[in-house]
Amino acid sequence: MNVDGTSFRTIWLGKDGETVEIIDQTRLPFEFIVVQLDNAGKAASAIRNMWVRGAPLIGATAAYGMALAMRDDPSDDRLSAAADLLMATRPTAVNLRWAVDEMKKLLTPLSPNARARAAYIRAGEICDEDVAICSLIGDHGMPLIHRTWEARGKPERVNVLTHCNAGWLATVDWGTALAPIYKAHDAGIPVHVWVDETRPRNQGASLTAWELGKHGVPHTVIVDNVGGHLMQHGLVDLVITGTDRTTAAGDVCNKIGTYLKALAAHDNGVPFYVGLPGPTIDWTIDDGVRDVPIEQRDAAEVTEITGRSPSGEIAAVSIVPEGSFAANYAFDVTPARLITGLITERGVSTASKAGLAELFPEFAG
Questions:
Q1: b or e along 228-261 (b: 16 or more beta carbons within 10 Å of the residue's beta carbon)?
Q2: Does the structural domain 2-129 have CATH classification 1.20.120.420?
């Protein structure tokens, strides 16, 4: 996608062909900083500390983390240790496990002297595959926006509400929930996005608004609790969110607050869609509420907020009384019954075991 007219991915190899470069997303929207990852430990830190975030990008970073580990020490012990290190960084996003397992499956039978090259090649393929998948999600999702616009008589704009960040910053390129929006915008459909601020880390206000603005997509930032009001007054035509893990039965685990948006959409008859790549589906579980591990993060993400002062200084400030405790549940689960459809690289399906099985029959057994 474009940043001031220059095309960027979110992860790439440096000039030496080995060092991995990423955008430090914790510095956005105030600073555009590129960070170099030159070992597996730094890749793990990038995931854990959310320099990179979003299930697909976490998976891509983990794949390159395995490649960095094999470059430094291609032994069996290091292969196992690197996998364990990366797997321990974030428990909810299933792409992390998928990418690490994919790399282990490839590298384990190889001789040590062949592992580094094979790891770099496969990590690059995982990145390219993600770009292709997300582009296809956009292709399958864009007609939903176009049909909504036409059904309303081609008004001045069609309003899409999204939650958190499921754009190109959450993937290698294009995004999941935002891919249909970018495709619609690029096709000349007058799409406007309501951007939830998405507390506690403000990924909507900081990341989604930033990338939409850089690409020229009209948008308005709203506080998280405004969505229901907008739906009641007919100001939201459809909702599209992303997902960090989707069960085989169509339950969706996404950034905390997604469930409440789905409830509001259901109550007001607003279509609620989820954009997801196939690797985000966890075929081992059906019941998301019961079986998906919900990450609980540092309470400081709730008790503090980072911003830029009029003088230009970037600082974190406390927003709660001293001594108050805070809970920081990072995700919630939206039951399949509240979801209008799942937008995948293979098409749009119902949020159900049968719907997903029709699109992904090789995994449905």
A1: bebbeeeebbbbbbbbbbbbbbbbbbbbbbbbbb
A2: yes
- In angstroms and rounded to an integer, the radius of gyration of the C-alpha atoms of the chain is 20
Q: How confident is the model at residue 94 (pLDDT cuts 50, 70, 90)?
A: confident
Confidence of residue 69 (pLDDT cuts 50, 70, 90): very high
CATH class of this structure's domain 139-359: alpha beta
Q: Which of 130, 173, 224, 244 is catalytic?
A: 244
2-129 and 139-359: same fold?
A: no
- Nearest C-alpha neighbor of 246 from the set 279, 295, 272, 273: 279
Average pLDDT, the chain: 94
Say what the pTM is: 0.91
Would you kindly state where each structural domain of the chain is located, as residue ranges? Answer: 2-129, 139-359
The DSSP-derived string for 27-77 is GTTT---EEEE-SHHHHHHHHHTTSS-SHHHHHHHHHHHHHHHHHH--SHH
Question: Is 287 labeled as catalytic in the residue annotation?
Answer: no
